[in-house]
Specification:
Distance between the termini: 48 Å
Mean pLDDT: 86
Low-confidence stretches: 307-311
Number of helices: 16
CATH class of the largest domain: Alpha Beta
CATH superfamily of the largest domain: Beta Polymerase, domain 2
Strand content: 5-15%
Shape: globular
Number of domains: 4
Largest sheet: 4 strands, mixed
Helix content: 55-70%
Structural class: mainly alpha
Order of helices and strands: HHHHEHEHEEHHEEHHHHHHHH
Number of strands: 6
CATH topology of the largest domain: Beta Polymerase, domain 2
Strand order of the largest sheet: 1-2-4-3
Length: about 375
């Protein structure tokens, strides 16, 4: 059966999640290598390995690639154990100093997976209520050095600990998208999110996890923001798929009303379309009716760019790169027109302001 690599990859994801028992493709060795690269780009190496382990031996990747994949999956399991331990350690350290906390995204999402240790971890996002000053006071009391984002305007303070783990201490539950800022509803977003953080649960791993409702609200904003700004991986869509399957009808209705209120109606329809296409999410589990038109934009950019745009191809030709960037930005216009206008306006203001410097240096690209 001839299918695109994207379809093959989505098929593996459905097998990994137990949504399908059959992988109806027979990839060539070259296609298997491309699928491995795709799993790396989408930060889903561990999850996809679980699908491979379920396949008959004759249907698995070539032996050496399978060994490489197994090594990666084992490393991911080890990293998850470390992240769980560190999440529990910071939860306890903060509690000893009188601060409540909750782990956002990452390890809180991983524990909902069919195999919690297969989710590829990134950093630790831990929320501490009380605002910027309290968060800064807490970190200084722990003697933590090399802090980044020391400004109340940003949503977190970051540091890398002695075990090489990036920790982001949030004094706000999330940052705003430009679209939300333009709608002047970011304060309203925080008013909705912050009370929900009262409904935390102490997990067996030793850290506090927010409610499903909070996770749906916060991660919808987070997913939409990064889909517009830099691109996200399918891991983030998988996170949201799993949250939706664990949610109640009341949670989904509340989140959909919230999405409409902050100007994310089209963005939400686009995200639901991607979830339906990739994971076959049934409509009764969606926040709203999916849009094939809008979702096509996000789907294509996700496969093209990967995790936070880190794998986006860099074009050395300045004019071609400029043209591609303008076209890419134009694609998001139907989903977030205000954001597009804001982003392009800022781009042209900055470009024009740099003309004297370009002339002085005799360079088009600075």
């Amino acid at each position: 059966m001839k299918r695109s690599l994207d379809e093959m990859f989505c098929g593996l994801l459905r097998v990994a999640l137990g949504l399908s028992q059959v992988f109806p493709y027979i990839p060539t060795p070259k296609e298997w290598q491309a699928l491995y690269t795709m799993a790396h780009r989408q930060t889903l190496l561990g999850v996809v390995y679980n699908a491979l382990a379920r396949l008959p031996k004759e249907s698995q990747p070539p032996h050496l690639l399978m060994l490489l994949w197994a090594r990666d999956a084992e490393a991911i399991r080890g990293k998850n154990l470390l992240m769980n331990q560190e999440s529990a350690r910071y939860t306890q350290l903060f509690a000893e100093r009188g601060f409540r906390s909750a782990i956002l995204k990452g390890q809180a999402n991983a524990r909902l997976y069919p195999d919690p240790l297969s989710r590829q971890p990134g950093d630790i996002d831990i929320y501490v209520p009380g605002g910027y000053d309290k968060a800064q006071e807490l970190l200084h009391s722990l003697g933590i050095q090399n802090l980044e984002h020391l400004t109340p305007d940003y949503h977190d303070i970051e540091f890398i600990n002695e075990k090489g783990v990036l920790v982001e201490v949030h004094h706000k539950p999330t940052s705003a998208t430009y679209a939300i800022r333009l709608n002047k509803t970011y304060d309203e977003v925080l008013k909705v999110l912050e009370p929900e953080l009262e409904n935390v649960t102490l997990t067996p791993e030793g850290f506090y996890s927010p409610s499903i409702r909070f996770a749906l609200l916060m991660q919808l904003v987070h997913l939409f923001k990064h889909a517009l700004l830099s691109g996200v991986s399918l891991r983030h869509y998988m996170d949201y798929y799993i949250l939706l399957t664990r949610s109640t009808e009341a949670d989904r209705q509340y989140t959909w009303e919230f999405a409409q209120k902050i100007g994310m109606k089209n963005g939400c329809a686009a995200i639901m379309g991607v979830l339906g296409r990739v994971f076959k999410l049934p409509q009764d589990k969606m926040l709203c009716k999916p849009s094939r038109f809008y979702s096509r934009v996000l789907y294509k950019s996700t496969f093209a760019e990967g995790d936070f745009g880190a794998k986006k191809a860099y074009n050395r030709n300045v004019l071609r790169r400029w043209f591609n960037d303008r076209v890419q930005n134009l694609r998001i216009f139907p989903i977030a027109p205000r954001y597009y206008i804001y982003k392009e306006s800022n781009y042209w203001v900055k470009t024009i302001s740099l003309i004297p410097e370009r002339i002085r240096r005799r360079k088009i690209a600075l």
